[in-house]
Every structure is written in C-alpha cells, then in structure tokens.
Fold:
Amino acid sequence: MKRNFICILILFAVIALSGAFIVYTQSKKADSLTAYIYSNDVLIRTIDLTSTDEPYSFTVTTDNGEYNTVFVRQGEIAVVEASCPDEICVKTGFIHSSALPIVCLPNKLSIEIRSEKSEEDIDAVAQ
Amino acid sequence: MKIKFALIAAMIVTLILCSCSQPEEYSMDIFAMDTYMSLMAYGRNSEKALEEAAEEIEKTEELLSVTRPDSEISQLNENGFLENPSDDMLYLVKTGVELNGEVDGAFDITLYPVIQAWGFTTESKNIPTEETLVGLLSDTGVARVHFENGITLDDNTKVDLGGIAKGYAGKKAADILKQYGITSALLNMGGNIQTIGAKPDGSSWKIGIKDPQNESSLVGSVEIIDKAVVTSGGYERFFIGDDGKRYHHIIDPKTGKPAENGIISATVIGDDGTLCDALSTSLYIMGTEKASEYLNAHSETNAILVTEDRTLYITRGIEPVFKPLNEYINTTINVIG
Structure:
C-alpha cells in the first residue's frame, strides 16, 4: 500500500521535473539568435549570433563566380560586399532580428535570423 | 491495482503536458515571382498545406509572368487575344479593369509597354524620351481591353498584372491553407504580407512597416488578425539614371513616368490581398491630396501613408493598432478616413 503511494509520488516527481526541464530549455532558447544562410534555396550555414564573441567574415561564392561577403558580430549579421549590380543586400546593413531578412536576388542569397523571443519581435515587415 | 491506476494517471498527466507545448509549426522559403517568400503555418497538416500553397504560388507565377514566353499573359500580349483564358487569368484581368475605374485611372494594367520602355522588366534600365512616352501612352487605357471571346486587346496594347499578382497569389495560398484547416499562418511574399487568423497563442500578428528612407528601420508596426498588409514604395525597385536622378518602378499612368506626388510609402491593410496590392500602388500614384480624398470617401479601406516630409496619414480604422517606431515616434499622425 505504502509502496504504491511512493511509486505514485516518484512518478509525479519525474513528470514535474521533466516539465520543468522542458520549460527551462525553451526559455534558454528564447535568448538565442540564429542566422540561417541560404544560397540558391539551400541552407548552407547556420550561425549562433549570440555566442559570436569575435567578429569575422566569410564569402559565399556561387557556381558562376558571383559572391557575397558576410560579416558576423555578436547579435548581428550583414552583407558587406557583393558582386551583384544593385547591392540591395549590402544596403540592408546589419540585421539583428527576425523582422527583416537580407536578400540578394541576383545571387540568390538570403540570410534570416530566427529567435524565440516574441514579446518585442515583429513577425514580418511589409515593404 | 493501485500501480495500474498510478501508471494511467501518469500517462494522462504526461499527455496533458505534451499537449501544452507549442503547436506543430512548419515554415518554407521559396524564390518565386522575382522575390523571396517565407511561408509559415501552424497546426496539423501544416507541412502538406504549405507545400500545396507553394505549388499554387508557382502556378500563379507561370500564368502571370510576362517574362515567360509560355505564360497565359505572354500569349495574350503576343497574339492580342486569349480565347480560353483560365479562370484565374479572366478574374485578374477583369479585376484590373474594374479597379481602374475605382481609383480614377491610378491603377492601369495596360501600362506594360511603358514599363518595358523604362526597362523595369529587364536588366537594362533607361530613361525613355518624352516623345516615346507620349506615343506609348496613346495605346494604353483599360477601354482597350475587351471580354468578347475570352480576352482581346486592341492593337499595340499589352497588359501586365504585376500590380496584383503577388496579392492574388497570397490570397490563393491562404485559401489552400484554410482548406487544410490551418487557422494560423503568416505568408511573407517578399514584403506582401498575408495572414490567416491570429498567432497560435491567440495574439495579433505584429507587422512592421518599412521606413522608405532607411533600409534597416521601421516607420511603425500594426497589429492585425486575418488580414493582408501590402506596402508600395519607390525605394523597392529603382535605378539611378545617367542624369544622376533616381527613377523608381511605380509608373504614373497619366505621365508614363515614376509617380512623384508626395507619397513615399503607401500601405493598405484589408481582407483581400489582391485589392490591397492594387490599392497600395494606386494611393502611391494618387499622391497625398487625392489619396486622402479617396480614403475619406472609402472608410472601408485602411491605409498608412508616409509623405516626403515624413508626415503620417493613417485611417481611423487602423490608427488604434498602429504604433510608431524609431524616428517616427514623435511624428504628427493625421487621422483620416
């Protein structure tokens, strides 16, 4: 009888703890910002912007030699140089939220940031 | 017996806990209609529903792309007639013609030859001469589009549905998602926003309105549920001419030149994405004075206008859910409509 009761208690404790763990991991995720870099519809790289301590840059080159140079620093990402004629991707500047992606239509490159914090975040930008 | 009971109880609690977590979410990015689109839907079947919605967008593009020689619109422009137009094609051309009257000519689907002359459909942009424009404009006007035996066009008349295509594709995609029972979705069609229902937690979608003078900033945000938000701005597609002047892609049907009538960004919020798309272009072309008059006379249309001198005009219906941001926080808001 008593043993059964203890069993129930343990079970509930396990459930409660796993619940707390889920909530904890979700809330940890809430603070993270991840950049997703797509080239020609293919996700070629993801970058955790939150844990980027030292700024760095790298270049994405397409099969036909077109390029975009991407600059990463904590919480932000930008295209700083590109071979496209309009350079809209460069003019977009640094992005730091999911509201606005960087898009280079000529070179078919796009960078978007995803985060879980929805309080202040804009869901999409009309433009 | 008791252990059994405990196990069942534990299972039920676990199930409840699981069901409390976020609903199924699926997102998809596609390049279509010359832009980058990001589609997101929540709930059961969201993956399958989005795949079908994306197919529908591509289908609409195939139909309406003036740069594809096999599209229905290219056939119509090349032959001057289309005997058996698809339902979509007929609907869009008719809607385009009707809207022209609605907005006093500010929206004109027959401007295509003028847009071609500016090179906006190609890579080589150039400034057409006054003479060229006058010549081309004489063959424009929706009175030159007829609906006998399908669709027929008068000589030298060509149509372009680019001004409503994205809005229409968004609406069609939303219809498909709804057929799948999706009650929460956000379709970002390259800045043309179409939403279904509210966010999964029941709150409104928060849509930012881009600052037309600052690429990485926003004028403000609007909170909406189950609506489309479409913005037209000259900053979107433009080129710098040999004369150093900036020429954008929103052509005024009256002059054949980029509209310069005081408005630098026009946003329309409404139920029908197709209509929002056409109206945002129209209001931009109309300019501050005429657009305000139009909105005062059509209280059912909700809009946000940004003028050259950074003044905001917002209709009564949307003003309560509009929040100015950044440099627009202390701007005077003129409530109209």
In short: The CA atoms of residues 7 and 173 of chain B lie 45 Å apart. Residues 204-337 of chain B form a domain with the T-fold fold (CATH 3.10.520.10).
